[in-house]
Amino acid sequence: MGTKTTCRRLIKAPASQMLVVACIFMLLVESSAGSKARHFKWDVEYVFWSPDCIENVVMGINGQFPGPTIRAKAGDTVVIDLTNKLHTEGVVIHWHGIRQFGSPWADGTASISQCVINPGETFTYRFKVDKAGTYFYHGHYGMQRSAGLYGSLVVDVEDGRKEPFHYDGEFNLLLSDWWHESVHHQEVGLSSNPLRWIGEPQTLLINGRGQYNCSLAARYSNSSSSQCQLRGSEHCAPEILHVLPNKIYRLRIASTTALASLNLAIGNHKMVVVEADGNYVTPFAVDDLDIYSGESYSVLITTNQDPSNNYWLSAGVRGREPKTPQGLSVLNYRPNSASKLPASSPPTTPAWNDYAHSKSFSNKILALMGSPKPPKNYDRRITLLNTQNKINGYTKWAINNVSLTLPPTPYLGSIKYGLRHAFQQNSPPESFSNDYDVMKQPVNPNTTTGNGVYILAMNTTVDIILQNANALTANVSEIHPWHLHGHDFWVLGYGEGKFDPKKDEKKLNLKNPPLRNTAVIFPYGWTALRFVADNPGAWAFHCHIEPHLHMGMGVVFAEGIQHLTKIPQEAIACGLTGKMLMTANHN
Length: 587
What we know:
globular, about 575 residues, L-ascorbate oxidase, L-ascorbate oxidase activity, about 35% strand
């Protein structure tokens, strides 16, 4: 119940003068602060849907897919009462990009920050959105993001402040990929010996909408694709962006793909990048942009093209040989009919393996003047080698030769209460052998599982070197976008081959590196990050490609948990923590 509702009841009912005065004071404080509590009631359940015109089962919220868009202002408190109506599986939701200062139990990471919400249970997520930006949310248990559990989260600037750029209107674009095989087929295939890979996604979705086995742009193509008839078009009709000529529009773009790296372009329109992962960047213009799973951007477009035409917006696959057609949307210049197809073909996606194009874009992203600068020196450096390995014939991904398997007891509770048997107490490796050749297949492909934690000292500066390597197959090194929970980090630079401190450290950008929460490592390369461990909690750091995380590609950081006072019991009352709390309550 909100302050206003409570006070209205008190003022109308017999109440002491002191209570009325207190209520008026609270209302004044709330009004002056300008922040609000925004309440939502959500039921998570499977529903029949036709995301790409083929009916399937998706994981929806309140009977819709994608889930409802959350819109708030910086400083607001978001409260979501989430009820699990899945019947046979647990659920959690991660609020991607929200740093959760003071509420680490609301981060929504199963076995790390909270217990799984069991069927029939309701869990209340309550957290403050402290920074304006483009974010999203998604399931973080098993592979529920692949099942469609995601939606947009937009945080506007607080009252009295303005963005450092002007625009006349805005659109929100949530990009995802979609398979016709169920998420359970995917999981079982990834856990099989030998691995059974279900292949590339059938469809790319824009705001949950796509078209399978047909093309909106078939008339421009030499392929055998037929023109879309949009069967079940209520769900799969293309997203239409209605614009007026000679205006500036902000496009908020976020990628919640489970696998695909994407390239986005708009026919005949340049895009000016102004925001990345909730942080302002020095504006720069591009014809197209690469966006990896877990990233978000804001771009500005000016509708200064021939107003008698409409224009294609296209999203195509990058970093993997594309076997999935482009996802398409239409920029509709009013008063043209939205059904009027553009006069020219959709923008061509750059070659999937044109990494020079990708790196050129990434290197253009620099912090806006006045943004926080990184500390000049680091206190601790952790180098994380990304490798594909085997365990008893099963294919895994590993970090420094350890494939992550999460324990049944959330780290937040086990560390807080000193439950030393809840997870491995030895710290994971800080680096890898100097003689490891990242350009070749591993000499010994075998790895091991582990669930140890990197314990970080509070308020220390931590450098992470993400090091890519050859996979199990010769001449294969994959793209990996890494996402850090609970923090933003500075992206200090990218490089080729193995990171060499003596020659590469002087190349790092300490002047104006961008703040991000997700960063990519390119094939056979490295990426250098820096962050300050200033947020008490247990935090996941992992590859945001869903199958890779499922196969062990992640680590866990913990810092300052002893400083947390009141952790809600319902967040951690499972596993060994649950037994301890039950015993304590019984006594």
